[in-house]
Predict the structure.
Amino acid sequence: MGKSDKVKELQKTDQNFVAMMDTMEKSLDNAIASHQSHFEKSIQDFYTGDSFKHITVLESGAHRDYQMQMDFTMSNISDVIRMTGEEIFGKSSSSEKTPEQQSIIDPLQPYYDCAVKTATAALSNVLTLLSWSQSAEYMIEEQHVSVGPGMTLHLLLLNKAFQGQTSTDSKTVLQNYIEYKIIFSPELGSAQVNVLYLQSQLTAMNRSLEKSSEFQEKLNALMFSDEYCEEDIDGPLHKKAANYEICLTDLRNAMMQARAATLALLKDSSADGPLTSCPHAKLKEYLEGKGFVCA
């Protein structure tokens, strides 16, 4: 469970805040129970049909994150994604894989950097959007994001802004829940292990970068509002704007890193040289050895 330093501090010193956190935990448990089956069905629907007969879950997990509204950043969540990537690709000492999982992960190693950065960008985008809403009701998002040939990151995200009274004043805590499954489909992999797939990924990333300007427009609207202009420089709206500016920078950095990693793969895939040096070579060999015809 991720908690900001301020949340941890208040839990140690403020009994009212402890009670508020208990309420938040129970509320989240109920919300998860209500949406779990829908998330599982959305994954089943993703792989419905004769085209998908062989799927393997490479990794799954869930993470709860609590941060004060004024201190929200993507750094904690980015760390979770990085550690998840290490677990998926066997780079974590705590990662234990079955022989079947390991046989799939080995030929996917060339995509490690790109997959982790693509997942980070996707999560950053959704969580930045949800953080702007600051709804008192749960905001729910399900996404199915391709992070590499045959690899799909299935996401369930819940976000809520809780406002409660501590011993001294009112506090707003942002609660985020992230549940994920990374599933490999050889049917998808055989269709995606090529340059065209990377080009389509790059196009999608460019569109996401363009759409990030919408967040900048919201930030500009806040900073040019009468309330903001009339407020003291250390007021809550100024703190909110400064925080959103950091989040927007984090988001753009995540998107640019994912784009750069995809470009690097695309360059290696297009370069002249022996077939064995191509990042797709090992995955193609694995898939063809299983009887799949690669595009």
